[in-house]
Request: fold
Amino acid sequence: AQIRYSIPEELTRGAFVGNIAKDLGTDVAKLAAANLQVLSDSDSQYFSVNVNTGVIMVSERIDREQLCGQNPRCFLHLKLAIENPVEFYRIEVEILDINDNPPEFPSDEVSLRIYELASLGARFPIQPAQDPDVGTNTLQTYHLSANDNFNLNVKARTDGGKFPELVLERALDREFRAFHYLVLTAEDGGSPPQSSKIRITIQVLDANDNHPVFDRPSYGARLVENSPLGTLVVKLNATDVDEGPNGDIRYSLSSHNSAALRQIFAIDEQTGEIRVQGNLDFEEATVYEIEVEAKDMGSPTMEEHCSVVVEITDVNDNAPEVILTSFSSTLSEDALPGTVVAVIHVRDRDSGEQGKVLCHVSPDLPFQLRKDYEHQYSLLTSTRLDREHVAYYNVTVSASDLGNPPLSRHTILPITLIDVNDNAPQFEQASYEVLVAENNPVGSVLVTVSAADPDSEQNSRLSYSILRAGGTDPGLDPTRYLSIHPTNGQVTAKFPFDYEQTTYLQFHVEVSDGGSPALRNRTLVHVFVVDQNDNAPRVHFPRAGEDSATQFRISPSIVPPALITKVVAIDADSGRNAWLSYNLVEATDLGLFSVALRSGEIRITRALQETDPSEHELLVVVRDAGEPPLSTAVTLVVLVEEKGPEALQGSEARAADGGGLPPITLYLIVSLVLISSVSLVGLAALGIRWL
Reply:
C-alpha cells in the first residue's frame, strides 16, 4: 500500500506530517506491538513516527531547493515495516515550495564599455539574476531605472529563464557624457514578492571623431648656418579633445618634404620639438619650409598639418677648395727649372671678400706657384732636383680666403722623382789587400768586393767582372785562377795557389750599373799568397841514393874539432817553414861527433883512440820550423883510415875542408832573406789596411 502526504518546506522540528495509524485504519496499540519501523531512502532522517500515537513528524529541517533544485515537484520516500506478520508500506511526502529565496544577481555591480559610435538598437546582455524557488515564487520580471539612452528588453527562454538586455535607443557622445549609471531590479512572483538590485556603470568608449588642432596655422624661426646639431628650431603644440589613443598626438615631418630636408631637420614625435640634425648651409638654401603633420593614434587616424618657415643667416663657413686640373705625381730628376708639375684651380663658395683666395707653397721646397689668372695657379720647379739627395716631396699648397677670420685649406701633393743614371757605382774601398794561404780549397771565397750606386732600380743594379792587371808576373792572367760572382762581388779561386810558384797577384775588378748608357768604376785587388809548410827539406849534399849512405874517410890522427863534412839542405818553403835545423840522431859513438844546429857542419869532438871502431855510421835529421814540422834524414859512414880525408864525392868534401861556403849554401841564404823580406812587407801592409 502507498500513502502520500504534502507539506511545505522549512517546517520546524516536530511539525505534523500525518497519522499513519489513522490512514492505515490500524489500531495504535497494534502498531506499537508490531514493532513499527520507519526507513528512509535518503541518507538523512527527515521524519520520525511516534509509535504510541501513529503520528509522522518532521525531525530535521527540510530545504526543497537543496533537495530537488529547480525541479517543479519534490518528493521524499519512506518505508514503513511491521512484524507479525511482516508488512511494508510506502509513504511519499511531497515537499511544497515557499517563497524563501529572493532573486540574486551574481554581483552587486557590473561595468559595461560601449563605443560612443555604437549603432542604435544595439543590445548589451546583463547577467541574469538567479532564484532557486520554483513556480510563481521564482524570478518573474526586471525593472530598469529611468535614463535618456537605454531601454530594457527581457528575453524569455523555453526553459522559463529570463535574460535582461540593455537596448541603445539614443546615440552616445563621450565628450558630452562619459559615464552612465543605471539600476536594474529583479523581482519574483511570491506573496509578498522579493527582489534584488544591481548597479550598472556604463563607460562610453571614445571614438576618434575629433582631429588634432595646432595652436597656430604656421610657425617661423631664424637660425645661423652651421648651427650645432640638436639646436632647437621651434616647439609645436597641437591638441585633440578625444581621449586615450584617439587624443594621443604624434608629430612627424610630412612626406611632402624632400629627402634632403628630412636629413637636416628632425622632429620629436612626442613633444613636437623640431631640432637640427644636419648641416645648415646658407650657400645651399637660405630658407627652409617644413611641412609638419600631427596625427592621433585612433583608428582610423586623424591628422592636421602646419608649416614651419626657417630662415638661415649666412656666416663665413666655407674654406677655399683646391682642385687639381692637371697633376703628375712623378717627375724626372733632370727636369729643368720652370717645369710645370701641376695646374691648380681654387674656389670659395662664399661671396665678396670671403670668396677671394690666395695660394702659396713653402719657400723651403724647390717649387713655386705661378698665378696664371683668377682662381688658377701652376706649380713649377724652381731649382734643379737631385733624387739621390731628396727622392720624395710632399708639397703643401695652402689656400686662404680673405674672410674674418680667414679660412684655409691645405692640399698635399706627393711628388716622386724618377731616377736618372747620373751616378757611377763607387767601391767601398779604393783597393783591397787579401792574404790567401796556399793550397786553398777550390771555390773558396777570397774576398768580397762591394760597391754602391745611389741611383735606383735598373740604374743601381750592379755587375762585377775581373780585368787583367799587372803583377809579379806581367803575363799572368788572373781570370785563369779567379772568378767573381757578377752580382754579389765574391771572388773565388778556380785552383789552389802554390806559394812556391806565385806569391803575389794583382788585378782590377770592374763594376758597371744597369743604366743606359752604363757607368763603370774599378778597384785594385792585391792578393798575397801566404806560405804553408808543404815542402820537406831536401838534402843537396852529400848526395846519396834512397837506400845508400855516403862514406867519408878520416885519419886516425885527426885533431878535434876538425871539420869532417857538412850536410847541406834546402826547403822550398819560406819564412819559418824554411828555417832548418840539423840534429845527430844516431851514431856509433854519439860522443865522438857533433853536428852544428844551423850550419849542418859535422866535426869530431875528441881524439880517436885505438879502442874506437874503424867505421862510424851517423844518422842526421834535417827539420824545418813549420807547424807541423817536416824533416829529412841522411846517413853518413865515416871510415877511419891512414889516408887523408877524402869523400867519395871528392870535390864537395874538399870544398867543405876549405871552410868556405859552397855556392848552394850562398844561394839558399840569399833566397831565404828575399822571401822573408817580401813576406814581412805583405804582412805589414795588410796590418795597416786592417787598422
